[in-house]
Amino acid sequence: MGSEFVLFVSATVFSIGALGFVIRKNPLVMFMSVELMLNAVNFLLVGYSSFLNSLDGQIFALIIMTVAAAEVVVGLAIILTIFRTRHELDVDHINILKG
Amino acid sequence: MMEFLDQLWSLNLDRETVFGLFEQGLVFAIGMTAILASLGVILCATPIYSALYLIVNMMCLALLFLLYNAEFLAAVQVIVYAGAVMILFLFIIALLGAKKEKRDLSFQNLAGLGFVGLLFCELLMSMMVGETKPVEGRVTLEVVQQVGSAKAIGIELFSHHIIPFELASLLLLVAVVGIISLAKFSNKQLRKRTRF
Q1: pLDDT for B186 beyond 80
Q2: Among 1.10.260.40, 3.40.50.2020, 3.30.230.10, 1.20.120.1200, what is the CATH number of B15-98?
Q3: A3-86 is a CATH 3.40.50.720 domain
Q4: ipTM reported for the complex, 2 dp
């Protein structure tokens, strides 16, 4: 399969992830949508590193995976802390910083 | 069925062509499965099903990494994402309880849909353009196959990309410190908001 297929799959999964981040209200599902977007970008980088005979894309994808793991861990800890103090999970109700 | 096989036989395809066609069909099927699984992530009302669909999506992407000659990254994808990150998600869902989410087609959702639709169209338009100036790298498939994917990535990582690698280790350290402080010092109830 050529590079158009990689671009198509990556663009579609990225858009679906962005849509999920916008329309869902559960912060866990929003985090999963962020993971979807990061995975789509990873796939694009790996596919193009295979087409262009260069390993830079794969190394970039590896570092993106590191960042994603750190981000998920910190984000889930924050969600858990919010749940501990408020006993509910809805991003529309977390407005204590709104002023 | 037999007629179809006879027709296929009369085409006189050699081994490489058949394997190439099979590989293309495999890549197409796995890519479509990844797209469908990602749709399942955002459309399921219960978070636990979303997590399971996300595992399917990550496995599909790992298989695609394998088919695009990135064996090491496929292994890392399975171990780090499907292994560590998703287990974390499932633990958190089990801790917090999975409630069904009520869905309504509000104005905000429609606006988000329009915005993301526009984004998707832009991405498709950029897809139509194609490559403007292809770069020719020096690490061809033969070189990678001689030393193996993991070793090639290791050599590249420790020779040309050593600073991002060290920065990644610093990032992980910061994440560990942040987690510990969040878990240790957030037990106290929030202080009442003072009203002015």
Answers
A1: no
A2: 1.20.120.1200
A3: no
A4: 0.92
